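Exercise 7b. C-alpha cells:
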C-alpha cells in the first residue's frame, strides 16, 4: 500500500469574461512559507477595467491575481489609515505618508526619541517637517503592521552597514594610494 496522493489546490480568481488567472507564484510562496489558506473569489468586472488590470499586471511583470490582491490589501490599509499611500522602489512597495516620509523612517527615528507620547510626536513632526497628525497616522499604521515596518527598518540597517563597509574600504584604498 503506497502513500496517499497529496493534492494541492491552486488559488484562482475568476474574472469575466470567463478568464481564470491562477496565482501560481502566490501558491508557491505559501507552500515555501507555510502561510495562510487562500480562498477562490469570483469577480465580475467591466471588460475595460479587466483589460486595464491585465495591462498593468504585464507592465509590472506580475500576475493579475497578485495585482488585484495588492490593490485590495493597499486599499484596505488606506481606508483604515487615511493619509497613508504606497510607493514603489527597487525593493518593493512601502507605506508612506501622503506628501511625507515613509512610515518605517518615522518609526525608526522614533526609537531614538525619549519623552511622553506627545513630546515624541512633536519631535518627529518637527524633525520631518510634517503635521503631528501625520506622525499619529504613521504610528497607527505601524501598530497595525509591525512585521512589515520592522522588516523595512532591518533592511535599511543592513543596507547602511554595507554602505559603511564599502566606504571604509574605499577610504583605505585612497589612503594607501596617497601614501605610496
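Sequence design result:
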Amino acid at each position: 500500500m503506497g502513500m496517499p496522493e497529496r493534492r494541492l489546490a491552486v488559488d484562482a480568481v475568476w474574472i469575466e469574461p470567463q478568464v481564470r488567472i491562477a496565482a501560481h507564484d502566490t501558491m508557491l510562496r505559501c507552500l515555501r512559507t507555510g502561510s495562510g489558506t487562500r480562498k477562490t473569489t469570483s469577480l465580475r468586472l467591466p471588460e475595460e477595467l479587466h483589460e486595464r488590470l491585465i495591462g498593468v499586471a504585464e507592465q509590472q511583470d506580475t500576475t493579475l491575481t497578485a495585482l488585484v490582491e495588492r490593490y485590495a490589501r493597499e486599499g484596505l490599509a488606506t481606508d483604515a489609515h487615511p493619509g497613508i499611500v504606497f510607493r514603489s522602489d527597487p525593493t518593493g512597495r512601502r507605506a508612506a505618508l501622503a506628501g511625507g516620509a515613509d512610515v518605517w523612517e518615522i518609526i525608526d527615528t522614533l526609537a531614538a526619541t525619549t519623552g511622553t507620547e506627545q513630546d515624541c510626536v512633536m519631535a518627529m513632526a518637527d524633525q520631518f517637517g510634517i503635521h503631528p497628525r501625520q506622525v499619529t497616522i504613521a504610528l497607527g499604521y505601524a501598530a497595525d503592521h509591525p512585521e512589515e515596518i520592522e522588516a523595512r527598518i532591518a533592511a535599511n540597517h543592513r543596507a547602511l552597514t554595507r554602505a559603511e563597509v564599502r566606504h571604509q574600504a574605499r577610504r583605505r584604498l585612497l589612503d594607501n594610494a596617497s601614501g605610496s
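Instructor comment: The helical segments are 24-33, 47-59, 64-80, 103-110, 117-128, 132-144, 146-179. The beta strands are 12-15, 19-22, 41-43, 84-89, 92-97.
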